[in-house]
Amino acid sequence: MVFNVSLGFQNLQAKTSNAKSENFSLLLADTVIVTDDGRDVATSASSKSVKDIAYSFNEDEEEEEQPKVKPESIAKDAVFSKATLRSDNGEISKEELRKQHQAELARQKNEETARRLAGVESGSGDGRAAVRAASDLIAYKSVNELPPPREMMIQVDQKNEAILLPIYGSMVPFHVATVKTVSSQQDTNRNCYIRIIFNVPGTPFTPHDANSLKNQGAIYLKEVSFRSKDPRHISEVVQLIKTLRRNVMARESERAERATLVTQEKLVLAGNKFKPIRLHDLWIRPTFGGRARKLTGTLEAHMNGFRYSTSRADERVDIMYGNIKHAFFQAAEKEMITLLHFHLHNHIMVGNKKTKDVQFYVEVMEMVQNIGGGKRSAYDPDEIEEEQRERDRKNKINMDFQHFVNRVNDLWGQPQFKGLDLEFDQPLRELGFHGVPYKASAFIVPTSSCLVELIETPFLVISLSDIEIVNLERVGLAQKNFDMAIVFKDFKRDVMRIDSIPSTSLDGIKEWLDTTDIKYYESRLNLNWRPILKTIMDDPQQFIEEGGWEFLNLEATDSDSENSAESDQGYEPSDVEPESDSEDDDSDSESLVESERGDSEEDSEEEKGKTWEELEREASNADREKGNESDSEDERRRRKMKASGKGRAGPSSGASKRMKFR
Q: Which stretches are tagged as biased composition: Acidic residues (predicted)?
């Protein structure tokens, strides 16, 4: 049994000079648990000192200073939680504590930004990928390799990736990578035209390469057109050129991406002593390329990395432990999938895609359900049994993933992996909020080290350590939602925007940002961040001297505007004449002003609008003068009765009396 013993006293006298605290009341309470062996006092382990368990309220309304509630006095007591006290004073103190913490974060952030900008040298280069030189595009090394001309017609050489065009009686080869666009058109005379546009160096989307800079006086062929009487041949040629060009461009793009990849270490497979940890029947995102049917695979944890493979030999992905920046495990609760997600330091190739995020997942229930057929009752035994099977399947999948995660965490806890600091992180759903990070709305959840969205693609993984500041935009009382702009420490990186966050999530987001030591600001409008960051990088010294990020502080700008308004009140225009010493001049000026004011008042009275009664009276007088009294209500009724064929006389005086009586 459990007993809560409470003992209260009132009207106790205290020896104090303060009249308000002379009389006081006291309540003592304790919780006792009766066990088989005796009793246990539930609060025996808690501190009972006054500074740890007591707090006071300021009841003096005339006093300006409010008592400060120390957060440590609440946090030390096991009985009290860190939640806000159920009083106005507690709410204010919590907001004040958050503002004080944010002010300290602003000071630290400005100092950190100043040190980082001072140590960063302006890097050269615009970040563009290397463009393949035109000299590398060789279709034929000599004229002898040209295929023998069959006819003077456009030919497509699939083997050498070239197009042969008849120009002045000769077949001239062009590499397919030099083709920008190809199109066909047919006119009314059954003539078909093919138009080929080439990539010319120096145009906006085709920069100069080393070969074009050497031959600056060269003349380039920009466009060529041919006419044919055979529309079928033209359409076939256009289709062949487009297909060949698409394949070549995809291959070159993959080659360029692989050239920028960081070389990974080789995977060390588990031997006989160490059996690999396996998780079966997983799907992977991004998927492997190709038109073949997608297959599930197995994820294995080996000595220094993971390996995912399917039954096909070419579908295999290796993820090294040293390349993993963040690892996430998200069990299915309100979602349709249970997943493992890896965010990497360096890109890897999954099929022919270059990616930094790799995800393995299992569908806990069918994504598509057949809703055809008759309606099924909610109390249908088959329906209830099917729902129970789905719950059991979901729980089993979650348990399998959890077992795999626990074993991998134990493996990462070994001494050789201590430097990697790896551990599976789980999203904190109670702190999640809805927003639009890309094009569709999604449920975004924080973790201990990241802000993630792992269900919809493209994935969102933002490391908290990479965040400089967060600006909450379109924040106002009348707004139903607001936006979040995340500025990264790397100012060359684009600002990440999460739009259309419900305003009900504002307090929770501010509390989470404050507890993770991230400085946030609020603004009423959306900001254009690219020119702002460019200005900061161009002149970092001026940015620091002007207060750093404090230009985003609304409270500071509001206080400045108030001060300027107060200063404006004392402003006197220079064109006002000084006061005259003579009373006659004052009286003359006063009389002149009064006369002008009187004239203006008379004019304004004349210009005032008339009442409805006056307007109606004027209208009736005007009708009477024009002889339009027949348009009265009685006349209109008389004409209407005659038109209906009733032939009755007009309303008599009795009718008017009845009207008056009514």
A: 574-606
